[in-house]
Amino acid sequence: MKKIITGGTIVTAADQYRADLLIENGKITEIGQGIQAEDAEIIDATGKYVFPGGIDPHTHLDMPFNNTVTDDDWESGTIAAAFGGTTTILDFCLTTGKARLLDAVDKWHEKAKDKAVIDYGFHLMIADLTEDTLKQLPEALEIAGINSVKVFLAYAKEFQATDRTLFQAFKVGKEKDAIVMVHCENGSVIDELVEEAKALGHTEPIYHALTRPPQLEGEATKRAIELANLAGAKLYVVHVTCKEAVDEIIRAREKGYQVYGETCPPYLVLDQTALEKPNFEGAKYVWSPPLRPKEHQEVLWNALKAKQLQTIGSDQCSFSFNGKKQLGKEDFSKIPNGGPFIEDRLSVLYSEGVAKGRITLNEFVDMVSTSAAKTFGLFPQKGTIAIGTDADLVLFDPNVERVISAETHHMNVDYNAFEGLKVKGEPVSVFSRGEFVIRDKEFVGKLGRGQYIRREVKKEGKPVITK
Ligand code: URP
Ligand code: ZN
Ligand code: ZN
């Protein structure tokens, strides 16, 4: 079925103009004024922006973590994403213990298969970065069609790489032309600070932030940067929160290092005082790295504006307050780390960024869609509006004003970290490959319609020889 979207203002990372769009067989086939096509359904987008669908490069759906499992699975998670204007997600396929990387990929396909309502790809995410998992990595990336892998300098007991294994992962990244994503916090020193705090009898959520200071994010970021550069690999620093880390990224990029950075909506609008909320409510704001004192927000906005940070991931990793967050009621270090952000990523960035004059519309599109598409090998199929691209589109009403609330969100979690935040602008209709998934704020998609997107790595990669 053909569709014509008429009367809207098309916005890409580069352009803004009034034109109609013709959609055929899931693709954009014509852009121009007064398009006509026989049998086409006409969709009036007058007064709306037409954005490329959002691409969320950082989600954790149905993922076992911190002795529990995230509350949004591939059904509620992708539906909430679609309501928020996201049409592609890249989810972390976690391998723990002695499991084979490709078995974890199979498991992730199973989780997604009959549920995903939007398109998706995976990043590998390795908890145990050992000789064995590193040996599997090049082939796993190739067979699975994945060009990115996340490893950790945080979470000392369960996830933390050594400098040596991190360097080895970078060597594989270089060999396969895959991007290595690193969670940059110094896990060992954090564990020491956590033990110190607990020995002094501190149990409250705020100690999650106080035991993970920005210096430890800055230090780990610098270490990852230098080791990646030594291996000649591309580094993507996930969820950057603070000046200490931003400064390292800027320094490296000015030297020509291949370093990219992502931040996430909560770090731009919430601050560390949220963890001090009474009655254990601070636990709603426990994730890692933690929220920072307010002055870091401006640093992040400036870095985004200057393209020193390029992408906005949601870091969706939801745990309900009345269920899973209570695991840490007596001990802040047992509060499951993560928050529910997949749905409000575009709205918060548009409202706090564009509507408040911090960033332009084109920069907004770049940050929530185009830049992730380019970084992770989805462009130009995804991440822009042009003839031949997938018709993944958002009709966005910039004039609506609303208040974010768990009462109205679609995530499977009993709180919203942005509760009460007044936002301007809202996705009204969302198309994935030309099909309505959200139509006039109603979900009309089909479970399991989302397609897996392969992102190829170099087939003939040679091992890196250090001179
Ligand atoms: O606290 C967070 N960010 N939870 C998700 C796992 C991770 O480190 O990204
Ligand atoms: Zn992380
Ligand atoms: Zn994450």
Task: Set out the fold topology.
Layout lengths: L2 E4 L2 E3 L4 E3 L1 E5 L2 E6 L8 E4 L4 E4 L1 E6 L4 E2 L2 E2 L4 H10 L2 E10 L5 H13 L5 E8 L4 H14 L3 E5 L10 H14 L2 E5 L3 H13 L6 H5 L3 H18 L2 E4 L5 H12 L4 E5 L1 H5 L25 H11 L5 E2 L32 H10 L6 H15 L17 E11 L18 E11 L2 E5 L2 E2 L24
Parallel strand pairs: 1-6, 2-7, 8-11, 11-12, 12-13, 13-14, 14-15, 15-16, 16-17
Antiparallel strand pairs: 1-4, 2-3, 4-5, 7-18, 9-10, 18-19, 19-20, 20-21
Bound molecules: N-(aminocarbonyl)-beta-alanine (URP) and zinc ion (ZN) (2 copies).
What does this protein structure show overall?
It is a single chain. The chain has 467 residues and is of the alpha/beta class. It has a domain at 53-375: Metal-dependent hydrolases (TIM Barrel). Helices cover 30% and strands 23% of the residues. The chain is built from twelve helices and 21 strands. It has helices spanning 74-83, 101-113, 131-144, 163-176, 187-199, 206-210, 214-231, 243-254, 265-269, 295-305, 345-354, 361-375, and strands at 3-6, 9-11, 16-18, 20-24, 27-32, 41-44, 49-52, 54-59, 64-65, 68-69, 86-95, 119-126, 148-152, 179-183, 234-237, 259-263, 311-312, 393-403, 422-432, 435-439, 442-443. The strands form four sheets. Strands 8-11-12-13-14-15-16-17 form an eight-stranded parallel β-sheet. Helix 3 (131-144) runs parallel beside helix 4 (163-176), helix 4 crosses helix 7 and helix 7 runs parallel beside helix 8. It is globular and about 70 Å long. The relative contact order is 0.18. One zinc ion binds next to loops.
List keywords for this structure.
eight-stranded parallel β-sheet; 467 residues; alpha/beta; seven-stranded mixed β-sheet; 30% helix; binds N-(aminocarbonyl)-beta-alanine; TIM Barrel; 12 helices; binds zinc ion
